[in-house]
From TrEMBL:
Protein's name according to its UniProt entry: 3-hydroxyisobutyrate dehydrogenase
Enzyme class: oxidoreductase
Pathway membership: Amino-acid degradation; L-valine degradation
EC code: 1.1.1.31
Top-level taxon: Eukaryota
Protein's organism: Stephania cephalantha
Length: 354
C-alpha cells in the first residue's frame, strides 16, 4: 500500500473528484423498461454502475437497453438527476449501490478515485470482508499495482449470499478502447485481466457495451494492455501531426497527405479514423474544435502511468518520456479538456484545411 501511496502523490496533479459529466444538453437517457431480460442470468441482472461521466454514461445506457437492472452513483448531481428522471435508481454512496447489486462496474478518472470508491468512507468495502456483489469490474485506466492490490483485497472477502457458480467475490480489470464515440455506439473493445473462468462468464455483459473482448491474463494485465495501447496511440498521433505540419510547410495539403498515408505504409488509426487536421474528416474531434473525445489531460495521465513500470524495469522508453512532456505542456497551457488530437494545432501549430 505504501507503493500505491507513493504513486498517487505523483498522480495527484491529475486527480479529479469525479468523471467528467456528459453535457445534459447533448445527451439524453433513453427510457427503457428495467425489469430485466429472460436471457440474462439471475446473478448478472442487477448491475451497479459507479462513474457515469462521458464514457460511463453511454456504457450504462447500453446496459439499460440490453435489459439489465441498473443502480447508479456519481458525485455529479446533475447527471444523477438525469438518470433518476428516467426511472433509474440512484444512490448517494458506492456502498449503497453495492447493497443493491450483483455486479459492480466502476468507470473513474484516476487511481485515487478508484481507491476512494473501493476503500474510502462508504466505499464498496466499507463493511469489511462481506460483500453482496459477487463480481466487481473496474473499467478505469489506473496503474496495474492499484488494480492488483484491490483484486487481492476483494478475493479475501466473503459473499453475503452465494451467486451463480461463485462462493466468494472476485474482481476483473477491464479498461476499454474506443473513446466516447465507441461508448455511445456500443463498439468498445474490452481488455480484461483476472480469472479466465470469470471473464468467460461475464463476456455477454461486456458485449452489451462493446463489440470485442480480449482476455489478457491475470489480474492487472488488462490495465497493462490499455496503458501500452494508449502509449502507442499517443506516439502515433504525435508522428502524424508532425508529418502533417511538415507537409503543410512544404506546400502539401493535409487532405492530399491523408490519401497518401491511408494507401501506403504510413496508414494508422490516427490518420484514417481520427485525423487531427480540422477540415479533413467529419465526425472526429478535430472537426468540432477538438471538443469531446479523449482529453489531453487523460492522455497525460496515462503516459504518466506508463513511465512507472518503464522506470522500474529500467527500460528505454524515450518516446514515452517525450510524449508525456508534450501532453503535460498542452495541459499547462490550458488545453487539458481538449481532445488529445489538438496537439496538431496547439503544439505543432498546424493549420486547418479549407
Amino acid at each position: 500500500m505504501a507503493t500505491i501511496c507513493k504513486r498517487l502523490k505523483v498522480l495527484s496533479v491529475w486527480k479529479s473528484s469525479a468523471a467528467v459529466a456528459p453535457s445534459l444538453q447533448s445527451f439524453s437517457l433513453r427510457k427503457f423498461c428495467t425489469g430485466g431480460s429472460s436471457n440474462i442470468p439471475s446473478h448478472f441482472e442487477k448491475v451497479g454502475f459507479i462513474g457515469v461521466g462521458n464514457m460511463g454514461f453511454h456504457m450504462a445506457n447500453n446496459l439499460i437497453k440490453a435489459g439489465y437492472q441498473l443502480t447508479v452513483h456519481d458525485v455529479n448531481s446533475g447527471v444523477m438527476e438525469n438518470f433518476s428522471r428516467n426511472g433509474i435508481p440512484t444512490k448517494k454512496t458506492p456502498f449503497e449501490v453495492a447493497e443493491e447489486s450483483d455486479v459492480i462496474i466502476t468507470m473513474l478518472p484516476s487511481s485515487s478515485n478508484v481507491l476512494d470508491v473501493y476503500t474510502g468512507t462508504d466505499g464498496l468495502l466499507h463493511q469489511g470482508n462481506h460483500l453482496r456483489p459477487w463480481l466487481l469490474i473496474d473499467s478505469s485506466t489506473v496503474d496495474p499495482q492499484t488494480s492488483r492490490t484491490l483484486s487481492s483485497l476483494v478475493s479475501k472477502c466473503f459473499l453475503k449470499e452465494r451467486k451463480g457458480f461463485r462462493n466468494y467475490p472476485t474482481m476483473l480489470d477491464a479498461p476499454v478502447s474506443g473513446g466516447v464515440l465507441g461508448a455511445e455506439s456500443g463498439t468498445l473493445t474490452f481488455m480484461v485481466g483476472g480469472l479466465e473462468e470469470v471473464y468467460l462468464a461475464a463476456r455477454n455483459l461486456f458485449l452489451s457495451m462493446g463489440k470485442q473482448t480480449i482476455y489478457c491474463g491475470g489480474s492487472g494485465n488488462g490495465i497493462a494492455a490499455k496503458i501500452c495501447n494508449n502509449l502507442a496511440m499517443a506516439v502515433s498521433m504525435l508522428g502524424v501531426s508532425e508529418a502533417f505540419t511538415l507537409g503543410q510547410s512544404l506546400g502539401i495539403r493535409a487532405s492530399t497527405l491523408t490519401r497518401i498515408f491511408n494507401s501506403s505504409s504510413a496508414r494508422c488509426w490516427s490518420c484514417d479514423s481520427y485525423n487531427p487536421v480540422p477540415g479533413v474528416m467529419k465526425g472526429v474531434p478535430s472537426s468540432r474544435n477538438y471538443d469531446g473525445g479523449f482529453s489531453s489531460k487523460l492522455m497525460a495521465k496515462d503516459l504518466n502511468l506508463a513511465t512507472f513500470p518503464a522506470e522500474e524495469l529500467n527500460l528505454k522508453c524515450t518516446l514515452t518520456v517525450e510524449a508525456k512532456k508534450i501532453y503535460t505542456k498542452l495541459c499547462e497551457e490550458g488545453h487539458e479538456q481538449k481532445d488529445f488530437s489538438c496537439v496538431f494545432r496547439h503544439y505543432y501549430s498546424g493549420l486547418d484545411e479549407f
